[in-house]
User: Which sequence fits this backbone?
């Protein structure tokens, strides 16, 4: 794969949406049934996320989007948002490359929220140096930095990078 990472543009919108919904199939039957939707992410929700400051970066093979990862600046942290790799390329380094790229874009501590049942996603972030925060800290962080329904808070976890963990080790 002769891939390059670049910031996505308006013309990439349909490809971002298709990539998210293709990759999110991994959640079907895994996350709580009351959290699954069809499509997983509707277009209006993606537009809303972009309008709220989620900046998407994509790995492109020529003009084909292979994976996407958003970064959102939230006060004193940066959030990794909506990280998805096309199903056929999962486990082949696309996500790792995107993660390293978005990490290079900020000097702030980084947080990621994901489904508690998505063991592969949790393992991916742990392999890349992130650690799970405590359930109480998860609830505080999701309430502070994310706008998600209570039920999603209940069924999610938060992972933090080493910088965040070092800065907050006295909190717990």
Assistant:
């Amino acid at each position: 794969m002769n891939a390059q990472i670049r910031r996505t543009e308006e013309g990439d919108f349909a490809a971002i949406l298709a990539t998210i919904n293709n990759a999110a199939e991994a959640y079907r039957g895994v996350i709580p049934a009351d959290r699954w939707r069809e499509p997983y992410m509707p277009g209006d929700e993606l537009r809303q996320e972009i309008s709220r400051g989620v900046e998407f970066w994509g790995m492109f093979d020529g003009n084909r989007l292979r994976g996407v990862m958003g970064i959102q600046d939230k006060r004193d942290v940066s959030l990794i948002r909506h990280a998805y790799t096309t199903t056929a390329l999962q486990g082949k380094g696309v996500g790792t490359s995107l993660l390293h790229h978005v990490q290079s874009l900020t000097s702030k501590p980084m947080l990621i929220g994901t489904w508690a049942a998505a063991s592969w996603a949790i393992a991916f972030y742990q392999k890349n140096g992130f650690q799970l925060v405590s359930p109480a800290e998860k609830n505080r962080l999701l309430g502070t930095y994310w706008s998600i329904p209570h039920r999603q808070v209940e069924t999610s976890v938060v992972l933090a990078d080493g910088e965040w963990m070092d800065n907050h080790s006295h909190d717990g």
Remarks:
- The chain is about 35% helix and 25% strand.
- Residues 13-23 form the longest helix (11 residues).
